[in-house]
Amino acid sequence: MYKNLETRxxxxxxxxxxxxxxxxAQGTKAFQSNDRVASNLKSQFDQCELYFSSSPKxxxxxxxxxxxxxxxxxxxxxxxxxxxxxxxxxxxxxxADP
Length: 98
Known about the structure:
The chain has about 100 residues and is an alpha+beta fold. The protein has one domain. It starts with a helix and ends in a 6-residue tail after the last strand.
């Protein structure tokens, strides 16, 4: 029963990553064509960036859009002494059309 569990879980993870990458590609195209969803995500990004950069409740988070793609946001450590390669995590939106 559990013999192939790891293999099955890896396949699921690969499928999720593949779908996420397709959203990244779709996001770039959607933003370039002024798509409604991409425009809404860009507005949400701008709001979040302003909110989190102003230290709400003592927490500061720097957000960046990767390659001007509103479907891909990256949280960057607020400590400027850390190298850019040490990004905390990447957060990808899941609002792309299927």
